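User: Sequence recovery, please. Input:
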């Protein structure tokens, strides 16, 4: 495992601080607040620690307050129900005694059932694309020095965008984006870890899908953006150290909010997970 990936795995490895209570550190990715995917991934790890023999199949969460990346985060897990096939957990994430995220996760025993899925959309293979870090190195000389480290930093999740937007000169595009995702280096055979890593990564390049039709990016002046909620459904087993295509669209934007949807496919075309997110996209 690469060192940068090991640090992310350790970030998701929460410390128990009481009955069904856990604590996780925060990382500074150069954003003003804690990256939402980190809180989602840690919340799922906390809930998973209270369930045996069942894997998460769905997660629904609301972001309540921005997190401070200089402080740890406390996670309280509430055991809502353990049934014959399903278990439900509620998770509350707090900093300084204030709730920053609340969510519910459902877990299921392994079982067989009906099978169908959407066909994987066409996309160029990851080998033909530059990574997000490589694009950052190209853009670095054109941005203020304070932003260069954020653009060029080593990443535990390698992202290779298809037809990337130039954040310095954005143009109006259809509400659709694609990116290939993969963790850097091999990972252990732990399906809980792979689900938590996908949860973490699913918040990257998602909100921006709803900005495409408006010719805006995170670097546009006078724009206020923030994730409001996030949902994930895990359909089939997968590995985060193998390439996954993240295909995203935004069916609607209105009332200062943008709605986004996503699907993760492996290279064989198997649909492994789906996501939705509504985000604040407000012109100040």
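Assistant: Recovered sequence (284 residues):
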């Amino acid at each position: 495992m690469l060192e940068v990936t090991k640090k992310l795995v350790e970030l998701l490895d929460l410390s128990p601080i009481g009955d069904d209570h856990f604590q996780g550190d925060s990382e500074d990715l150069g954003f003003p607040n804690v990256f939402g995917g980190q809180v989602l991934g840690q919340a799922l790890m906390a809930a998973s620690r209270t369930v045996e023999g069942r894997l998460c199949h769905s997660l629904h969460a609301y972001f309540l307050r921005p997190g401070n990346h200089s402080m740890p985060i406390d996670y309280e897990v509430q055991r809502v129900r353990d049934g014959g096939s399903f278990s439900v957990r509620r998770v509350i994430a707090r900093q300084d005694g204030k709730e920053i995220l609340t969510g519910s996760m459902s877990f299921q025993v392994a079982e067989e059932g009906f099978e169908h899925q959407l066909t994987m959309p066409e996309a160029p293979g990851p080998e033909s694309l530059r990574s997000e870090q490589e694009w950052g190195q190209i853009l670095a000389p054109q941005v203020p020095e304070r932003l260069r480290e954020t653009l060029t930093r080593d990443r535990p999740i390698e992202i290779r965008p298809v037809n990337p937007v130039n954040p310095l000169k954005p143009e109006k595009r259809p509400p659709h984006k694609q990116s290939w995702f993969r963790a850097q280096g091999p990972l252990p055979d732990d399906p809980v870890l792979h689900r938590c890593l996908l949860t973490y990564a699913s918040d990257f390049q998602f909100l921006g899908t709803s900005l495409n039709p408006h010719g805006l990016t995170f670097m546009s002046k006078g724009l206020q953006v923030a994730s409001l909620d996030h949902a994930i459904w895990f359909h089939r087993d997968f590995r985060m150290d193998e390439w996954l295509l993240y295909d995203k669209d935004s069916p609607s934007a209105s009332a200062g909010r943008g709605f986004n949807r996503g699907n993760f496919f492996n290279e064989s075309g198997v649909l492994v997970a789906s996501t939705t997110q509504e985000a604040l996209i407000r012109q100040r």
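The chain is about 20% helix and 40% strand.
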